[in-house]
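[[Per-residue structure]]
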Amino acid sequence: DRLSTKRRPDVQVLTGKVLLAQDRNEESTLAFREAARIDPGNADACYYLSILQPTTRPTFGEGFPDDPRAAFVQKWASDSRTGTRNCAIVIGIDKYNNIPALGQQGDFGSKNDATQIAKALSRLDFEGQSVELLLDATATKSGIATALRRVAEGTGRIGSFLLYYSGLGFPAWSPGLVVHDSVADGDRVENVLTGQELNDAIMRVPAIHKAVVIDGAIDEQMKPLAFAGGYLVFGATAPHEECHVTGDHGAFTYALLKELKNAALPMASCRSIRERITQQLNSMLVGQNPVVWGDAAKPLVEARSRLDVAFELVETRYYGNYSASLLKDLLDWAQTEGQDHPDISLALARAFLNKRDHQRAIRSLRTISTSAGSTVAEGFLLRAVAHVMAGAEEKARDALNHLAKIETAWSSLFQLEVARLLLALREYNLAMTMAQKSLADQSGVPPAAKAILGLAQAFAGVQESAATLNDYSDQTSTAVAERDSLDRIARFVATGEGTPEKRALLVGISAYSPQTLRAPRIEAEGL
């Protein structure tokens, strides 16, 4: 609050980022607006305003064409779900009054399927009123057409639209999708919803992402329509196969409901969902082979776009809520579509390091552009950390050697992290250089820089090491016992005992105030 009165745009941007990480978007927008008012050329403020107000802000790329984030903002405007609503029409038909062969006696679990799917969608950012449930008598041809028209003519931008149907589907004896009031008279079937009629209605829905799920017989007539229309059709069986029922559910929907509970669903491709459902059906001894027509790399239900999830990962920097499978799917997407935003690659690398997955952390960093100085610097640091975790010391040294040659404005804390890692790898001269750079920064250097410098000097045989460590001890009021502890840790690192990871841990612990980390330091000595 005190700094904000000094009209500093950098403080306003930092405030906005903190508020954004707490999901306080309105307050965050005000902070970024103030920063842009004070300094209209502030790229960070304009970038975040373009993200928070994609439909009202001018194109970020026009003002900052050379900024590596320009392509991301352009993609965000078309793909983000910010300011959108999600809609679904869920249909379940058990009774077909005008089909004598079935009459009123059909009970295929379709109504139960539809009811459970509607409940599952409510957990996926499909709000209650946005899911229309049509069962039996309401699932007539006109009823379905009216529901589709309501969605198409509604107000507001639609992010994701799903049409789910459970029933007879497109049986071989019907020219279209069988609905509640379809009529069968001998070889003649009337009042069905043809594939073309269904396609035309779906194409009128102004949604970014569209999918049709049919737990019933499927017909080849939907295949070219789906590819041409840019939407997905997910069928419970291959054409001419039979749909099976298990208990009070269709076997396909039973497996699909499990998938809808998967935390990784927003990122999972429809292809991977189909493979998992097929495995479930095989384990149930059900001879069904689900099909996907359209771009199978897209997710089935995209309540939030991959860009939204990726941006959230970048801004919150809290990785505990992200499952390993969700991060893996997000990485697969980033490898092909996320290259234009290096912050996503860095966030993924941090998240995988947080989960001790050093291999995927290294893979995440391969998409970083070599033209972005500070980004590349952090990329090399994270790559070095990952190699240390993997026990690949030579690769870690190579990464840090590249890092030391990058000319960019680093914070003293960043330089300190580099020095600490160099020390753990016994690169003493480079560690001294980075620690001295950190100490030369006058913006508030922690005493840890003195500890790292003193340890590096001691291991390199520099005489000033004792004076540097004594200075560190004086700054932190280190007790005699703690000073002895520091010396023991120094000897442990110098002799190269233990794994690189343990040495890195000890160096990190040795550089903090003994008053606040006394117990962890004693614990570290026991390694």
The beta strands are 84-92, 131-135, 157-169, 183-185, 188-190, 207-217, 232-235, 245-246, 249-250, 291-293. The first strand starts at residue 84 and ends at 92.
